[in-house]
């Protein structure tokens, strides 16, 4: 093990305290970068997010195929949405999204980075011989450690489970607001009034039998969807490590980050997309008899069976083409903004 690396792992009080302070600063930087990147991607991708969510749930609605605003074409769907609801209609639910997505990434990235470091530290000193730590350094010998994929995978899953738990209520509210227009078509004209955030929250609370548990509807589907993170983040980290390996400065370029974020997201989305449809259907499910205790809320398996029975296996991939169009700007904006803000913050901290 190199002398420099040994110093970093020293247990002396001075170095230990310095390491703790650095970790705290990096956590704050990661938190700020996560919020900033989440806010940027929320605004840029709001129209595509709206169209995707509506496509995911429209199979459960009887009259939806007759509505001009709904189409499998992204261009036509956006054009008709603007014609029906105006430009503001393309940003339906953006207020909740600006609360939700930055909060999610503000929680996720610091948790992911912290867990990644802790799990890797445990891996080195408990599963491997201490001298084997050198095997995880890159070929430039600059103390940038090549972590095993299992470290990235475990960190991504655990961070996702925690962030999803805290943000699930806002995901439910956002989904309800984005799909409200679809449900209004099944109501008389005098009842077709869009609700704001406050009324949506009150309506959900009443619908749930005055229980807050309704705000965690779809959470189990989100946990199943953590397989998405288990694919995306190891691949993203590997692509970044390869970029550093080729770089004379041992730092990824903006293009490297764009390529790594877009590629990893597209692969993960393609492999794990059905869980998004199931989650959106669960969150959008509307119990019209909230006071009837015998009313059975759809579960993951029953929703899955219903989709396959009514729409075939293709129904599990509704809106996937929108997602694939959306992942390029969304994931690229989120990850590149995060990396750039984090890099800038660390540079400022050195002065």
The helix content, as a percent range, equals 55-70%
CATH architecture annotation: Alpha/alpha barrel
Distance between the termini: 30 Å
Give the CATH superfamily.
Answer: Mitochondrial carrier domain
Q: Would you give an account of this structure?
A:
This protein has helices at 3-8, 13-57, 74-85, 94-127, 149-184, 197-207, 219-224, 226-246, 254-272, 274-284, 300-311, 320-350. With 351 residues, it is an all-alpha fold. The chain has a single domain (22-350), classed as Alpha/alpha barrel (Mitochondrial carrier fold), CATH 1.50.40.10. It is globular and about 55 Å long. The model is unreliable at 1-22, 129-134, 136-144 and 290-295 (pLDDT under 50).
What features would you highlight for this structure?
Mitochondrial carrier fold, disordered N terminus, 351 residues, 12 helices, single chain, mainly alpha
TL;DR of this structure?
It is built from 12 helices and no strands. By secondary structure, it is an all-alpha fold. The chain starts with a helix and ends with a helix.
